[in-house]
Amino acid sequence: FFPPQVLLLACAEDLECVPGFQQKVFYIEKPFEFTEDRLVLNLKFDDCKGNNKLNFEVSNPDFRVELDGNLVALKNVSDAGRALFVHARSEHAEDMAEIFILEANEKRGALKEILKLEGNLGIPRQKRAILATPILIPENQRPPFPRLVGKVIRSEGTEGVKFRLSGKGVDQDPKGIFRINEMSGDVSVTRTLDREAIANYELEVEVVDMNGKTIDGPVRLDIAVIDQNDNRPMFKEGPYVGHVMEGSATGTTVMRMAAFDADDASTDNALLRYNILKQTPTKPSPNMFYIDPEKGDIVTVVSPALLDRETMESPKYELVIEAKDMGGMDVGLTGTATATILIDDKNDHAPEFTKKEFQATVKEGVTGVIVNLTVGDRDDPATGAWRAVYSIINGNPGQSFEIHTNPQTNEGMLSVVKPLDYEISAFHTLLIKVENEDPLIPDIAYGPSSTATVQITVEDVNEGPVFHPNPMTVTKQENIPVGSVVLTVNATDPDTLQHQTIRYSVYKDPAGWLEINPTNGTVGTTAVLDRESPFVHNNVYTALFLAIDSGNPPATGTGTLHITLEDVNDNVPSLYPTLAKVCDDAKDLRVVVLGASDKDLHPNTDPFKFELSKQSGPEKLWRINRLNNTHAQVILLQNLKKANYNIPISVTDSGKPPLTNTTELRLQVCTCKKSKMDCSATDALHISLTLILLSLLSLFCKSF
């Protein structure tokens, strides 16, 4: 393959010795394969004191760095990941170098980005007084602290000046992580770093005089925290449940398992590989599933015949899945999770009746469930592939039967919904079919066992007689003579084969107006029918009668009779009000408006005729004026003295013949002062006494 292209990111030629790697970051083009023992690149490490006890560690165990700094592969490696890290440590210094492996199409862009950053990365395209090369520090370093990690150099010397470091991690939170030797420019870290908390620090370094005045800078100093494999893969999205249909083809994807690793995603520290550690249960095969080591996809690996839900020990499998970083190598950290896989049912078994013929017995006239039909189905009871749907396909022309599914037992509940009649048919034969809610799969069909016969025997019972018609209606005038015939009821016995006799009786007669002949059913009156009775509603009187057969025990039928009562003029009109009050000095002599009402119906009610009875005395004291068909007004013809007066008023309705009612209107003439009315009786009844005296005088004259 082509030799790797190496780019030097930082150098300090012609400057004083800086302990550590003389080049810390490399970009190389990914070869087709790293060949065993072939040079990848050369790393230069110098602790400025002879490199005593120098050793190197490589993040990828397939590589090593020899003492002369040559990085070589220990074997042929086709995939080394996106980056390699080399840690060097001697008696006096330690440092980290980072090697990024680029695809061919990435290299040009990467070089451009590097050149853009040359000022910050220390490439001296123009002369600068301060050289601050990027510092790489491994996370999780152990004490002692502080630990020297880099050096800032001033090309013009450090006499009379000092270095000053600032930024996040120095004088900004988190404070005090880094510090600089004011005189030498040595940069130290004071505590253990955590890349997952902060991966990069951007600091500024400047040179100031002894009074603190800036002479050079500030110049950016980048510190990158190098990832260590200190985080285990974690499954965060559980619970993990997958479904696969029984009989699925080999290689069917069930679900995907995805773990998270908080380490640097560009390194092998977060390069995950997946594996199935355990499968429960282990039948019918201990290896029912396979997981793609890179993607985490779980797929089936057994034949469709073995993926049969009905023959499995359990339709639920639990897989213990392991995720390991470092690309799955033995040194990688692991995390586990449980994947639950459910084998879903498909409708590959038709329901079958447990027997070909069922028997049922039902009494005539009774409705409800008469028999439960049982079926068997090997499919999953929680699905439509198991739930049964029943239908009656023959023997139900009158729709007297219905069948429904019991959702708990899956049985077919056969019911009578229209009462059966023994005298019409004593036997019924039904043909029942059962299917599933879900359709069967194409290669399965319903067979003869999916139909069954139900033989139903109807038992004879003593049925009560039936009135014809029911209810019965008749129209009669109220006040017809007692003993009048209303109608003759008719009831028949449905039990035509038993030749029974029927007798009648009154069941409910609220007003006690009726009687019935127990033999022939003739209904007659025992009292006057009154349309205005409180037992009559909307002109209709209702009574109930019984028809009782001669069976053992006897059976009873009930008939309803509605009598519509026609009105006759049998109620006199009534007058209201019967009391009125007026002031003795009233200017308005219109005393009261009277109204009339009648319990009868039109035309036996209004228009009403209002009249005053003959007034006594030399002068007329009042008159009555008709206002409309139902009201009239009483008017005084002069003011009266304080007293009580009785005014006889007659009201006549419009019936034929008309009826008249005379009612006395009591008129109180009161003293009225300051809006107060005093009606206490100080005088005797004026008109009444006058009438009494006149009557006595008349009797006295006649006696002579």
CATH level-3 fold name of the largest domain: Immunoglobulin-like
Percent helix range: under 10%
Total helical elements: 3
CATH superfamily of the largest domain: Cadherins
Report the CATH architecture of the largest domain.
Answer: Sandwich
Shape: elongated
Fraction in beta strands: 35-45%
Overall pLDDT: 87
Supply the number of structural domains: 6
- Count every beta strand, where a strand is a DSSP E run of 2 or more residues: 52
Give the terminus-to-terminus CA distance: 171 Å
Largest sheet: 5 strands, mixed
Please write the CATH class name of the largest domain. Mainly Beta
Rounded to an integer in angstroms, the radius of gyration calculated over CA atoms is 58 Å
Could you list the spans in which at least 5 consecutive residues all have pLDDT below 50?
Answer: 1-15, 107-127, 682-704
Overall SS class: mainly beta
Main location: membrane
Domain Cadherin: 161-235, 236-353, 354-467, 468-575, 574-685
GO cellular component, one term: catenin complex
Organism: Erpornis zantholeuca
Describe the structure.
This protein folds into 6 domains: 25-103, Immunoglobulin-like, CATH 2.60.40.60; 130-226, Immunoglobulin-like (Sandwich); 234-344, Cadherins (Immunoglobulin-like), CATH 2.60.40; 352-441, Sandwich (Immunoglobulin-like); 466-566, Immunoglobulin-like (Sandwich); 574-676, Immunoglobulin-like (Sandwich), CATH 2.60.40. Helix content is 5%, strand content 42%. It is built from 3 helices and 52 strands. The strands form 16 sheets. Strands 45, 47, 50, 51 and 52 form a 5-stranded mixed β-sheet that branches. Strands 2-9-8-5 form a 4-stranded mixed β-sheet. A 4-stranded mixed β-sheet has the order 11-18-17-14, with no helix packed on it.
